[in-house]
Amino acid sequence: MTPLFLYNTLTKKKEEFKPLKRGQVGLYTCGPTVYNFAHIGNLRSYLFEDFLVRVLKYNGYKLKRVMNVTDVGHLIGDMDMGEDKMEKGAAREGKSAWDIAEFYLQAFKKDLIALNILEPDIWCKATDNISEQIKMIKTLETKGYTYRTDDGLYFNTSKVKNYNKLSHLPLSELKEGARVEKNAQKKNPTDFALWKFSPLNSKRQMEWASPWGVGFPGWHIECSAMSLKFLGSQLDIHCGGIDHINIHHTNEIAQSEAATGKKFFNYWLHSAFLNITGGKKMAKSADNFLTLQNALVNKGLDPLAFRFAALQVHYRKPMEYNDNSLVQAEAGLKSLYNQFKSLGAIDAGEKVKAFVGAVNQPLKNEFWAAVNDDLNMPQALAIIAAVFKAKLTAADKRATILDFDKVLGLDFLKAGVKAGAELELNILPDSIKDLVLRRQSARVSKEWELADNLRKRIEDSGYLMEDTKDGYRISRK
Ligand code: AMP
Ligand code: ZN
Questions:
Q1: CB count, 10 Å around CB of 321?
Q2: Which pick of 46, 164, 280, 314 has the fewest CB atoms within 10 Å?
Q3: Distance 351 CA to ligand 1 centre (A)
Q4: What pLDDT score does 278 carry?
């Protein structure tokens, strides 16, 4: 078996992945700012993270994955000036910032299901962890890393060594990246807010008391405080899109290492952007964004066509979007599904316990080597084509493809099973198995609303879960 190599932004090298604790991985992925729908650019980043999660699992690691939800403190300018994105979203829609956050979080979770993205083990909202953030800021204050200006408490970046160790950029270039609306009281252009004060003459919807005055946390502190809280010493991998390298992740590292005196995460992975043809980055703030709904669902395209499109481009290369690209991706995906179906579909009324065929080891080794080479998914897809062409029995081909699908997440099973066929738990895709097991434990603890919710999500993914006298029955919808 080829060892797993990942490109680490910190060292600018592909490195063999070695977790801090044998067989276990702590993974933190910066989550959505819930003031609007996710656009397909954001979703490309979450797909990359899903490929990473699945490859880690394929290698046998036990994962603890945390995703934060930014529901306060992310200002329009990444340099801590301008309006709060949440309060702006609330004003736009005439709702409270809290309602906006909940609405867009649920919409985001639906997108994850539609794209067959595995859910993190822990979701954590910035607003649920204010005291942890305040505690960390206090530590930084005690250690002499902070100073006060009229609008907040700031982190003094000149007090840390190697502030640019993630960006590898000279400080002068980081300065140039700073937004126009500057705080003249800042000591260094790269300094950032840890705590912002509420305006004197108006009340914010989201604000808290703190030792420095009523206000709200800066954006970066939430990820430091929550990754340390939920992962403890298991700080293996931290991910996000490349736009997070120079500011958000750089600041997370600076403040966390200043507070703890220890290294903060060993591996930093970043995905390139999805661009609209012509090289323009898709951005929520640019209003040029396409959601899963308007880019795919409204056009009658299968959302998994977007997953397939993302698999076709290596995550460190830009992905181009144009009106035709997803139509082509869907045609490619359907052709793979048809090839899978031609191996023999499972009929309604049949019960599928396990697949007869055997996973072909030489092809599996090739596939494994591809995905372990810094998630080379385009190469992995080429091996799928090789399976269909290989001199193997239909049953062996089917078993091999379903094994690869643990990583690809294209749900070949659904394609190869006719409506009504009953499926045993052990052959369900991981994402569905996860939902089924969670629903069972929700029922045991009599959390009926959660159980209903989970059943609905299983249904949205194309499977039915019915309760029976002795347990439950899963079938293809
Ligand atoms: P946000 O909800 O704005 O905090 O962003 C969520 C994630 O999407 C972050 O990891 C960003 O780096 C990433 N992201 C933002 N724009 C794009 C884009 N056009 N292509 C790929 N990823 C993006
Ligand atoms: Zn973050």
A1: 20
A2: 280
A3: 42
A4: 66
Cβ burial, residue 287 (10 Å; 0-12/13-18/19+): exposed
DSSP string, 25-84: EEEEE---B-SSPPPHHHHHHHHHHHHHHHHHHHTT-EEEEEEEEB-S--BSSTTS-S-B
Q: What is the pLDDT of residue 279?
A: 64
Going from the Cα of 242 to the center of ligand 1, the distance in angstroms, rounded, reads 8
d(CA 432, CA 184): 53
pLDDT tens-digit readout, 261-275: 999 999 999 999 999
Which residue's alpha carbon is at the smallest distance from atom 9 of ligand 1?
241
* Nearest ligand atom owner, CA of 219: 2
- Give the percent of the chain with pLDDT over 90: 68
Predicted confidence (pLDDT) per residue in 103-140, tens digit: 999 999 999 989 999 999 999 999 999 999 999 999 99
Looking at residue 388, its amino acid is F
Q: How far apart are CA 430 and CA 372, in angstroms?
A: 19
Instruction: Tell me the two tokens of residue 132.
Output: 């942890």
Residue having the nearest C-alpha atom to atom 8 of ligand 1: 42
Distance 279 CA to ligand 2 centre (A): 25
The pLDDT-based confidence of 422 (bands split at 50, 70, 90) is confident
All structural domains of the chain with their residue ranges:
5-271, 428-476
- Does position 180 have pLDDT exceeding 60, yes or no? no
Render pLDDT for 148-167 as a digit per residue (tens, 0 to 9): 999 999 999 999 999 999 99
Shortest-distance atom of ligand 1 to CA 284: 3
Instruction: Among the bound ligands, name the one nearest to the CA of residue 240.
Output: 1
Ligand that comes closest to the CA of residue 105: 1
Q: Residues lining ligand 1, CB < 6 A?
A: 30, 32-33, 41-42, 44-45, 70, 240-241, 243-244, 273-274, 281-284
Ligand 2 centroid – CA 220 distance (Å): 6
Q: What is the CATH number of domain 5-271?
A: 3.40.50.620
Mean pLDDT lowest for which of 193-207, 294-308, 395-409? 193-207
Of the candidates 407, 408, 405, 423, the residue with the CA atom closest to the CA atom of residue 462: 423
Using an 8 Å Cβ cutoff, are 25 and 56 in contact? yes
pLDDT at 177 over 60: no
Question: Is the Cβ–Cβ distance between 57 and 86 less than 8 Å?
Answer: no
d(CA 32, ligand 2 centre) in Å? 9
Residue type, 335: S
Q: Would you say 381 and 312 are in contact if contact means Cβ atoms under 8 Å apart?
A: yes
